[in-house]
Design brief:
The chain is α+β, with helices and mostly antiparallel strands. It contains 6 helices and 7 strands, in the order E-H-E-E-H-E-E-E-H-H-E-H-H.
Length: 174
């Protein structure tokens, strides 16, 4: 797979459904975290619940997003086979980032380097939304307005980029 084609299997048509907040999301994350740590041991440098399901009170796609920090995400041999044996499937290959998911597509496991921009950006965004109800509602409103069938689920993510960028500007402001 070339770096020009980061999606393994190509674009996927998906229906984006936004669900009301569900306390089961935190329990599902805990279960997945245990599975990841059991598969990788101390190679899992950090495991964090990210994305909308990690923000109490925020409606979300019922997909658990997890950041897994490893020493070198580009060294797939150091972790991908063990994650695949634990039931995850490699879906995205980009420099400094891999994404694996469950076959049911209800867990997205993002692999990055500890302290990377990828890790920092997701944690800052999550923590900002947890602490700022106005931005949390604004983000939810955008997501609800975009719900529906998308020929490429990545286009849904791209459609949220302006509001995310605006929120991140404030979150990162000194």
């Amino acid at each position: 797979m070339s770096q020009d084609q980061p999606l393994i299997g190509g674009p996927e048509r998906r229906e984006i459904v936004i669900a009301d907040p569900d306390p089961a999301w935190a329990k599902r994350y805990d279960c997945e975290r245990r599975r990841i740590v059991a598969a990788l041991g101390d190679r899992a440098l950090r495991v964090d619940h990210i994305g909308s399901t990690s923000v109490p009170g925020l409606a979300a796609k019922p997909v658990i997003d997890i950041d897994l920090s490893v020493t070198d995400p580009d060294d797939e041999a150091a972790y991908v086979p063990d994650l695949e044996a634990a039931g995850y499937v490699l879906r995205v290959r980009e420099p400094g980032h891999r994404m694996l998911r469950t076959p049911e597509r209800d867990v997205h496991l993002h692999v990055c380097a500890r302290g990377s921009e990828w890790e920092t950006r997701h944690l800052v965004f999550r923590d900002w939304l947890r602490a700022h109800p106005g931005d949390r509602q604004r983000y939810e409103d955008v997501k609800r307005s975009l719900a529906g069938v998308w020929d490429d689920s990545n286009a849904y993510a791209d459609a949220k980029s302006d509001v995310i960028a605006d929120i991140m500007r404030r979150a990162l402001a000194p």
